[in-house]
Amino acid sequence: MSIQAMPVKPSAPAVSAHISPQTPPAPRWSVAEVEALLLLPFADLLYRAQQVHRENFDANAVQLSTLLSIKTGGCSEDCGYCPQAARYNTGVENQDLMKLNDVLAAARAARDAGASRFCMGAAWRGPKQRELEPVLDMVREVKALGLETCATLGMLKEGQAEQLREAGLDYYNHNLDTAPEFYGEIITTRDYQDRLDTLERVRTAGMNVCSGGIVGLGENVTQRAGLISQLANLDPYPESVPINMLVKVAGTPLAETAAALDPLDFVRTIAAARIAMPKARVRLSAGRQEMSEAVQALCFLAGANSIFYGDRLLTTGNPEVERDRALLDKLGMYPLHKKY
Predict the structure, then answer these.
(1) Is 79 a known active-site residue?
(2) Which listed residue (48, 111, 150, 268) is catalytic?
(3) Residue 84, pLDDT score
(4) How many whole angstroms separate alpha carbon 92 and alpha carbon 60?
(5) How far apart are CA 181 and CA 295, in angstroms?
(6) Which of these is catalytic: 82, 117, 195, 203?
(7) Rounded Cα–Cα distance for residues 215 and 226 (Å)
(8) What DSSP line would sit under 253-320, residue for residue?
């Protein structure tokens, strides 16, 4: 994907008018610039993030999404965090693709609980055409319920993104997970370019991109900055950016090796994503089950304005609907599109 030139900041040195046409454009957000954000005094970082947030969004509105695992377990990939990988003994059973009527029942329940977007996830390396066909039916029928539609099905082949768009898919999720320099420590069954290629197919097909990553994988602050820089330098950057805290699931390699991330470092990551991608929906995603209300409140203050809403997030827990409603009420926040 192409990278746009970084806007000139007041403190930036003047750019020579004699740059060679062969000189590549400067990235919009270099890794060093994002790292500098992450290392700001905490209050200064949140103040800046909140300013950016208020310039672009209603600061008290939150977009509610519900995520359903329509095909669970049995994935051939070796993502070190994932309980759905067939090679790990995590207690997650390989299940067939859900029936259309069951998916629609879940979508109606999500809509009635206040969700405006319904995301469908399948544990595939990438869908075969015969697997994609029933998912296209799900997208059409969920769209007909008045919900925004999102899917995460793994890597897409040529032409598959167009089929999803024609069925009515609004967003396709494909996370970068981490910085390119750290990626090989987490996944070996696909490379970083594979992920970028899928995102480009999605963008070329005319769909919105949902792409973020996971923090707490054992990465250092520079690598955490590298993830945000990669996302911010996509042209254009994603409309939706889920930031996940690693959920340690027994049986996965990272459950034993990754050190726990300081919750305030997670808040810092949310703030950096908000500043670097000012018009994106930054979603507070996996890991909320383990977060206190105070940490979640800081994430909203840092610019998070979307959450996964419901009792499950693929195969891991998520705060229940009633708890989410109570927290939003305490904070004076409300759903983006309608009241519950």
Answers:
(1) yes
(2) 150
(3) 76
(4) 37
(5) 29
(6) 82
(7) 11
(8) HHHHHSPPPPHHHHHHHHHHHHHHSTTSEEEE-TTGGGS-HHHHHHHHHTT--EEE-SSEETTEE---
- Distance from C-alpha of 178 to C-alpha of 212, rounded to nearest angstrom: 8
- Tell me, yes or no, if 75 is annotated catalytic: yes
- Alpha-carbon distance of 151 to 138, in angstroms, equals 10
What distance in Å separates the CA atoms of residue 291 and residue 260, rounded to the nearest whole number?
Answer: 12
Whether residue 299 lies in the annotated active site: no
Quick: pLDDT tens for 116-157.
899 999 888 889 999 999 999 999 999 999 999 999 999 999
Cis amide prior to 21 (ω within 30 degrees): no
Marked catalytic residue, from 79, 268, 281, 288: 79
**Pick from 336, 340, 338: nearest CA to 324:** 340
Catalytic residue among 28, 48, 75, 195: 75
CB atoms within 10 A of CB 205: 18
| Calculated CA dihedral for residues 259, 36, 7, 31, nearest 10 degrees | -40
Between CA 27 and CA 7 the distance in angstroms is 9
- Of 117, 190, 210, 274, which one is the catalytic site residue? 210
Write the CA distances from 31 to 12, 181, 221, 265, integer angstroms. Answer: 16, 12, 10, 17
pLDDT(172) > 90: yes
Point out the catalytic residue in the list 28, 111, 119, 281: 119
**How far is 251 from 90, CA to CA, in rounded Å?**
5
With H, G, I as helix, E, B as strand and everything else as coil, classify residue 196.
helix
Known catalytic residue: 119? yes
pTM of the entire predicted model: 0.85
**Residue 250 reports pLDDT greater than 90:** no
Task: Judge whether 185 and 226 are in contact, CB under 8 Å.
Answer: no
Catalytic residue among 195, 201, 268, 283: 283
Answer yes or no: 117 catalytic.
Answer: no
